[in-house]
Amino acid sequence: MPTALITGANRGIGFGLARAFLADGWEFIAAVRDPANAGDVRALATGHPGKVSIEKCDLADFTTIDALGAKLKGRAIDLLLGNAAKTDNPANTIGNTDYDAWIDAFRINCMAQYKLAEVLAENVAISAQKKMFFISSRIGAKPPPGMVFFRSSKSALNQVVFQLSLMLKDRGITVACAHPGFVKTISTANMGVFTIDESAGYLKKIIDRLTMDVSGSFFEPDGSTLPIITRQMNPAAFGAKAPDAWAEQKKAWADAGVSI
Ligand SMILES: NC(=O)c1ccc[n+]([C@@H]2O[C@H](COP(=O)([O-])OP(=O)(O)OC[C@H]3O[C@@H](n4cnc5c(N)ncnc54)[C@H](OP(=O)(O)O)[C@@H]3O)[C@@H](O)[C@H]2O)c1
Questions:
Q1: Which ligand 1 atom lies nearest to the CA of residue 84?
Q2: Which of 80, 137, 187, 190 best tests ligand 1's pocket when mutated (most atoms within 8 Å of CB)?
Q3: pTM, whole model, 2 decimals?
Q4: Per residue in 155-184, pLDDT tens?
Q5: Are 146 and 99 in contact (CB under 8 A)?
Q6: Non-local CB neighbours of 185 within 8 Å, separated by 6+ positions
Q7: Which CATH number do you get for residue 50?
């Protein structure tokens, strides 16, 4: 049976995803911030003996990600599903910005997702399906203005996902992300359009169909794609180098002892 590791599996969309993969016969590792208080996922584990394990993973504390990696060493993980995020960001206005809170959002929503991928890359590489999938947000592209911490951290996550897709390609790992829709969870004060099970159903369908040729994509819930990053459409313009020129440049840097 394939195995998924899902962060933030105790509530919201993560819980919906956990149920969807369990219903399809998967085993899953619930990586949660506070296992002792993860009552909903504990109930899932009780109802599915031998199928669910619960591990600690606080994305704000990278030592817990390292500890998770050490504990899971050698275990194949078919799907790393980075769902958890800091969604309770304080409002910000010009002249009233909490920069420490902004750093927290970046640490959890962007850097910790990369850290998870880095720590668990070998687990995914030794699996049959070799997939990493992250829950991003389309919200960066939409009015009203504000919510800069959340939006900028998710936009940065998209760049991370794109880079991971390039960096892990030669290990056979497919990496992508999706907007989950506007979903009724605590983070939206239950004002969404979709239930967690509807959103999880859409996301699972995308994940099931993921192949290497769409690695680096940013999906809408219906499976269509959004631009994940601003791509340079004309590499010859504005001083950008063609790939063969980059090889020369990299060699020149290497010869000069510059590490890039
Ligand atoms: N709901 C929407 O309409 C919507 C729209 C766009 C994107 N999204 C994205 O979808 C994903 C799930 O959102 P949701 O609506 O289900 O959010 P949610 O109900 O607020 O749940 C967030 C989850 O993230 C976990 N989490 C928060 N900080 C964490 C940390 N430091 N370490 C580990 N886990 C942490 C929470 O764990 P605890 O249970 O321990 O608090 C919880 O399980 C997020 O990435 C969110 O940005 C949601």
A1: 24
A2: 187
A3: 0.92
A4: 999 999 999 999 999 999 999 999 999 999
A5: no
A6: 11, 12, 13, 192, 196
A7: 3.40.50.720
